[in-house]
Amino acid sequence: MFTFRSFGSGSSGNSYLFSTDSGSFLIDAGVGIRRIKQCLYESGLSADKLQAVFLTHDHADHAKNAGALQKEAQKTGRNLPVYVTETSLHGINRNPSIRKKPIADGIRLILKNKVIECCGCRLSPFDVPHDSEDNTGYLIQYGRQTLCLLTDAGSITPEIRQHVEQAQLLIIESNYDRNMLDTGPYPRNLRQRIYGGHGHLSNEQAAEIIYDNREKLRRAWLCHLSNNNNTPDRAQATVIKKFKEKGLLIENYLQLDILQRRVASALFNLEENT
Question: How many folded domains does the chain comprise?
């Protein structure tokens, strides 16, 4: 068994549950603690049943409730490990938006490109450019399946391409539609921050890397869509258009899904069509 479920994806909060026959872990804990607990309950779990929480970076929409989950687990005498880079941890401890800091003796510091084993998975953290203290993507290997999770990325670097090229499954940020951003209400400095090299990925950038890896990918999820500068239809249409421009149909290569901002996703079986 290898499954995935999103508890929410976007600037209002991000959290992703992965489960195998050996246990479950979260990547990011930025949605509300009540929603995390409810989604865990719906998934037949609770905080004390999680094996770990892995954080991508120190912004509140990704990390604000890691400490709260640790406190929930402690109620049953468990110490829930939180995996994070040392630089991101410093950012979390300095971030006033994160009121419940991770518990010190539960911290597990990670190093980029050093494999971590959890729940039968091998997680390889890699560097992702963003305007946080640090940012981490994860390449997750379980059996014959390899999934790449990439969010809050200002650009597609050679290192990112190297990791995406290994994956059959891809969770990738598709934050904004450039026209909506340019004609929307955001001031110039904020627009420049978003489309700069340490901001967020556009629909076009996400579409390009999905297209470039079409021969190996069999499923992709677009995540972290902006509420003000994007719509699910625009994000999906941009990827489909990229294939049509080359005379191809996306459905002949892979299945494309959108992860909603405030709505938990269905449970995805990652071992289908292997």
Answer: 1
